[in-house]
From TrEMBL:
Protein name: MFS transporter
Membrane topology: Multi-pass membrane protein
Chain ranges passing through the membrane: 20-46, 58-79, 86-104, 110-129, 141-158, 173-192, 204-224, 236-252, 272-297, 309-329, 336-356, 429-448
Organism, scientific name: Litchfieldella qijiaojingensis
Major facilitator superfamily (MFS) profile domain span: 21-454
Amino acid sequence: MRLFETRPHDDGLPGPERRIAVLVLVLGTLMAVIDTTMINIALPSIARDLRIAPSRAVWVLSLFQIVCAATLLVFASLSELLSRRWLYIAGLALFTLASLGAALSRTLEALLLFRALQGLGAAATLSIGPSLYRMIFPTRLLGAAMGMSALVVASGYASGPTLGGLVLSVADWPWLFAMNVPLGGIALLLAWRALPTEPRRRGGFDMLGALFSALMLASFFLAMDTLGHGGGGLELAAMLAVSGASVWLFLWRQRRASHPLLPLTLFEEPRFTLAVMVSGLAFIGQGLAFVALSFLYQQEMGLSPLQTAWLFTPWPLTIMFAAPLAGRLADRVNPAALSTLGLALLLAGLVSLVLLEADSGVIDSLWRTALCGLGFGLFQAPNNREMMSSVPKARSANASGMMSTVRTVGQSLGVALVGVFLAADLGSVQASLWLGCVALAGAVVISLRRVPLTPAPQREPRSQRPSPGSK
């Protein structure tokens, strides 16, 4: 397989070691991503068994997401001191042990404690996952590696609800957490063997920056959660004020820290800055679409939850098909141009979904959803490649943390905006979808600006390529 072949002068790991290291990253990512989507299905069962209100059971999901999002940047920076190998192993161990604790929990308080610890473990692994792909794979295969990363995330999102439903059909909800224990144990053993070592950075850690970062992101996500549930008033204003003040303090600290949590010099590279902006807008659009389409299908088209799930299926499935292909192409052609094409297809697909009639047939919906997934799959891997390749390797952990944070913040903001539209009665569900189209149109415009900035990756001279019969 091309991803695991070794050529002279390759950086990264040799082919056999690369296979094991990739398996570690796949297992770690799948456990974290599937855990998020799988638990959605179990919330009614958790509320019933723990004898709590459904509104309180939602915190089993929300707390995990808030803790994970609030600490992504912190762990990305911390990896420079501990090394990415040891941080990933520690994150896997914490996530696995916390999963065991969650499976054994019999009160909401205990379950929430272990869900918070799970969120910390997931943040440690997800924050540096993309940078580990860059460390493991040779530069010539960076796009293909980013395509594999996108494939794994899409697979997790696609299979989580189905896997959760299958487990709950034969067992109780604690088994959803218990499944992570043997998988985590296997991933830990393989990680100990295969993840590469690297020199650690000498110097201090930006504790004040970490505090401001966590406060900034946690208060933002609490505000988004309040908005998403139709809340407002003094509580919302206070959380937004705390988040805004924390942003200012965080930026102030980053300009003065000797070892900043997020070096602002990263944003002096136009390719990186534009890729971050495009990614944020794209995930806002996707977050808006995912929630708004659920209401469109069920409330305005009269479909059942099962039919709605069926109509969503082409989105992640086409991402799983398109992302690896786009990643390989991004190693050969201009990745900014390829991701711009993907954004344009995603925008066209979402516009076509907004124009769906209430009496439209299933096939009419399926091809539009598939077009969205195809566009997002063509966009994500090349854009991630552009983000990671535009910064020095020494800063790849920071870029990786920023990538994960932008994805999480953008998706959550999109979800919250649908809640605002519905709570404030600002029009039909189509109004939310049109807002998603506006976000994607902005992403296309910004992405067009970076196409001339990004050269196509240089092909190796023919003399350095292996002969057709070589391995």
